[in-house]
Structures are given as C-alpha cells and as structure tokens.
Write the structure tokens for this entry.
Amino acid sequence: ADYIAAKEHEFEQDLISEPYLVRLRREMTRLPKRCPVKVVSELTPARLIAYFEFGRASRETYNNRRGTMSGFLKFALHREWITENPLAKIPAHRIRRRRSGAETLTATQAKDLMIFIENDHPSAVPFFALCLFAGIRPCLRTGEILRLQPSHVRLAENVIKIDGEVSKVREPRTITIQPNLAAWLRAYPLEKFPIVPANLQHIREKAVEKFSLSHDVMRHTFISMFVAKFRSIGEAALQAGNSESIIRKHYLDLKDTAEAEEFWGVRPKRAGDSATLKPDAPRPSDLRAAA
C-alpha cells in the first residue's frame, strides 16, 4: 500500500503515466494473493519465481512481473524493510526478438468501417477518423483520444499538436493532417461533433462486433499505411510517438503502395470545404531534393 501511494504521488507530479499506474496497481493487488507472506523479507527467490511463473506464464510475462517486483523491492530496500534484494539471484529470461507484423485493417476494411460509422453513427465520425487516419491512441479508459481537445486539432495549419498532457509517453509530437482526414474533419467539424460523444462506448461495441476491431488496430493501420505511402520510418516514428526500432520491427512492409493510396483516399460522402484541402505531406526525401 505504501508503494502504491508513492507511485500515485509520482503520477500526480506527472512523472509516470496512467496506464503504467493501472498495471502497477493490478500487479501489486495480485502479489499478496499469490505470495501470502507477513513481511517483505519473506519474499524469497523461490517464492518470487513461483509467482513469476504462475499460470504457465510466457517468458515475456515472467519478465514483466519481475520488472514490477524490481521497482517494489528497490523501494523496500530503501525503506529498510529488507537488507538485500532477492532479485539479484533471479535473472530475467533472455528473449529472442523476432520481427512480427502488427494486426491491421485492409484499405477495404477501413473504408467499410468509415462508411458504417458515417451512415449509422455520424456523431462518432471524428473519433474513428482521428484514430484511423492520425493514429491517436484510442483506449476509452486511458487513451490519448480522451484527453485530445479540439484546440489540438489545427485544421488551418494542417497539423494535430499532441502535447505532453495528451501523449501517452508524456512527449509532445506533431501529426500531419492528411487530405482525407481534413475532408472528414471539415464534413464533421469538431465544433458540432465532439471527439468523444456521449454514447461512444455503445457505438464502439457495435463497430467491434461488426469489424472485429482489436484494441489498437486502427492505430496500427495508420502507422503501417503511413510507412507504405511515405517510406520513412523516422517520420512515422515521430508522428506516431514510437521508436524507429518499433516501427521497423512491427510495421515495415506490411502494406504496399497501392493499398496505401486506397487507404489515404477514403473520404466522406458528406461534403465539406474541399476548396482548401492541402496536398499530401511530402516525403522527407522530397524535401531534401528540393533543398
């Protein structure tokens, strides 16, 4: 309880993210159930290993549990609840990292999804358009989309400014508004259509049922389609708020140019102010060539 209280204080000071705090609370609630000891010093290496392995845990899950305990036991050592850290005798598993593709929608599925939302649930168009065509993290409990405000979406400047308060990783980033997203936002302006409508949970459940949407599939689709169209891992990392290694490992070459063109061509049937739509954002190589 003291450790959780200390982490909650860090969260209030904007030192850790809400998703991290949620995971930490869950793990620290599970610990005393799996290791019913009276004092922290009774958390022996054998007991900890049994805890890390319960439920036939994968190597990654094992390492994640060990990581959580590492923070807690360092806290306990600092408080002098223990005299030595038992994790020193428990190495983490080595995991061979393999390149794997993220789950994504096809361009046709993305088009069908937006047609469904526009026809049946137009109040939710901005939410789905921003998640799918700008890669905003969509979680309805702790996602960036819940903190995104209309003032962050600067349509006249053709950018979305994600500040540290909105960003999951507390790092600001700038996302270029592509022409099709601009068309959606002009047809369904944020002044009239809230980013998070009151009945969004119900609408999202219907979309999940109809299109089997997984948690982050819209964001994964944005990143993979961005890489396919602009062929820039660095720019994709900057706009998505990921590292280049993550982009290369999970999103490179998932989509081809033809499918990306189809995806970035998905537009609303409702007319907006198309006269002021800007051309596609140039690739970094184009900028260098022009210079």
User: Anything to note?
Assistant: The mean pLDDT is 87. The longest strand covers residues 159-162. Residues 59-78 form the longest helix (20 residues).
